[in-house]
Amino acid sequence: MNTIITKGYKRGIHKCLYSVFEEAHINLPRQCFHSNYKNQNNRTTNNYGLPPSSFVTNSTKNNLKSSNVTKISDGNIRKSVFISQSYDVFTNLALEDWLYRNFDFSYHHVLLLWVNDPCVVIGRHQNPFMETNVSKLNSNDVTIARRNSGGGAVYHDRGNLNCTFFTPRERYDRKYNLNILTRALFREWAIKSEINKRDDVCINEKKLSGTAAKLGYPNAYHHCTLLANTNKLNLGNCLSKEEVNYISNSTASVRSPIKNLCEINRNVNTSQLISSVGYEYLRTFATELRDGGNQQIMKQRGFQLINPTEKWFPGIGNLRTEFKSWEWIYGKTPKFSVEKEIFLKDQDKEHKMILNVQVEKGLIHNVTITMPNREQLPVVSSLQCKCYNEENLSKIINALKLASTDNIMQAINSH
Amino acid sequence: MASMTRFARFGLQFTNVAAKTLRVVPNPQCQHWRAFNVSSLLLAERRYTEKHEWISVEGTTATVGISEYAQDALGDVVFAQLPEPGTALQQSDECGALESVKAASEVYSPLSGKVTEKNDEVEETPGLINSSCYDKGWLFKLTVTNPAEIEKLMSEEQYKEFLKAAEH
Questions:
Q1: Domain ranges within chain A, ordered by starting residue
Q2: What pairing do the DSSP bridges indicate for beta strands B77-81 and A206-209?
Q3: Tell me: the pLDDT tens digits for A356-384?
Q4: For chain A, what is the total number of helices (H) and then of strands (E)?
Q5: Which of B103, B108, B124 sits opposite A150 (nearest CB)?
Q6: Which residue segments constitute the domains of chain B, with CATH numbers given?
Q7: Contact A65 B50 (CB under 8 A)
């Protein structure tokens, strides 16, 4: 399902951080660096080691009254940067959801950093067919996933960093999180970016980052993308939909021009971003946007590499299965209908019909055609109660074009 | 702050109504009745959860919505996902979500019970939650299975206090 990365940037960062802390003679609990570094020698396929002690959460602690959460003083809040070792979108979404459901963030704020293989991730109340061409994605080996937070569709690949900021609901602060990103970019590369009205990070009105959030009790998270060197061509291709008319009240994406950070400074890549965003997060006070410098960093729990496995996070496997299921990705689509104009040729003239396909819970529910005289006729199709997708739509269209011209003409004449 | 003043107004209205009802029954022999009147009035009034949902109970059916404060904090709601009729809920179960400017907020059931109806109009026009959160913007109705839960929810007054405490 997921592999542990023992080479490449992650290990590099990890090692260098470890030595930073050791040189500073800070006695950090070993668990903070619990990961491949510690387990390099004794790892087997079945034994990824045990989760850091900080993962053991006590759910009764979560009963803190909301008014008490805001009373926790800054000095009592620790921060961690978790770096997921998986590139699988479903595993990472499951990890995010696991932390949201089970972790106690009252005294411990967490920034989870994760990178995915090529995929399109849509918002919780979106229609995948209105955001992408699902059939085309499947044939191009791009995964499609539905996340739990609101907002619009995004494209991920290894050139894009995802940042999830976890806090208790009462501490949820989108502006704070976005400022961490802009400050990190400025500190590391002197890149000046802005936060616009829609809470996107932009340069010259081109988007570097998109935002979404999930608010619950006791926890909330805000996550965003950050484009380092994404394949823009793929991004554009993946977020183009089939040319038919969709009618639905599902959340619409706001399409915006985008920019990769590497176009501004070619030294930017995802591993550099992990390091700079992570450090910026750790050096900033938990409850206010104030830089605490190295002093503050030393008070935190530092960077931790995370293996999103069942051993570390009991129950994560089930969450992943759920994220990957048809019922979640397509079945959760708010009901919608598809309209397409079809021209049928009689001997001498052309008739314009409007095909209407109603889809509920991802399944084709009803198919009708509207005649030139505006009369609606039900169409009996073997595709009823089958999954809706672009291929099945074109099957219906072709079937109508081929077989039923005569029938339809008869139907017109008989009325 | 605007929402707070609105709350203050609600509070005033509430006490006025109670005072009036008391005045309508001037006969001292009706002491028992008077008490009953007040308590049934309280039940018809809204009660609140710490997660900013409200309920109002009529007979065995409770109507659920979100408070003015919550509506204001969310901003424009663009999508409402409500529980299907027939769903059995426990108190504090996640039972839906409201989406506003890029954030999906969970809706938790204030009471245990079975969903009898959801507000189709809100599903069609989620903006009703913003424009009329106590009236047209209700979310769903459920049958009350454990009336003791109602008593534990906050009254209008208590909720006002709760909001004040949370601001500090």
A1: 9-329, 336-414
A2: unpaired
A3: 999 999 999 999 988 888 888 888 778 88
A4: 14, 17
A5: B103
A6: 2-167 (2.40.50.100)
A7: yes
pLDDT in tens, B113-143: 999 999 999 999 999 999 999 999 999 999 9
A230 vs A226: CA distance, rounded Å: 9
- The highest-level CATH class for domain A9-329 is alpha beta
Q: Is B102's CB within 8 Å of A150's CB?
A: yes
Closest-CA residue to B67 (of B113, B134, B149): B134
> How far apart are alpha carbons B123 and B56 in whole angstroms?
20
CA angle B111, B114, B116 (to 5 degrees): 115
Strand partners, B94: B108
Per DSSP (E only), the strands in A210-329 are 211-215, 219-227, 245-248, 302-306
Q: With beta carbons under 8 A apart, name residues in chain A contacting B106.
A: 214-217
Taking CB atoms within 8 Å and a gap of at least 24, the contacts of A183-190 are A183/A280, A183/A284, A183/A291, A184/A273, A184/A276, A184/A277, A184/A279, A184/A280, A184/A281, A185/A261, A185/A276, A187/A276, A187/A280, A188/A272, A188/A276, A189/A261, A189/A264, A189/A265, A189/A267, A189/A268, A189/A276
Whose structure tokens read 């990705």? A329
Token code pair at residue A236: 């554009």
Residue A215, min C-alpha distance to chain B (Å):
5
Taking the CA atoms of residue B49, residue A108, residue A270 and residue A2 in that order, the dihedral angle to the nearest 10 degrees is: -80
Q: Which residues of B touch A (CB under 8 A)?
A: 50-51, 78-79, 81, 94, 97, 99-106, 108, 123-124, 126, 162, 165-166
What six digits make up the tokens of B99? 């989406």
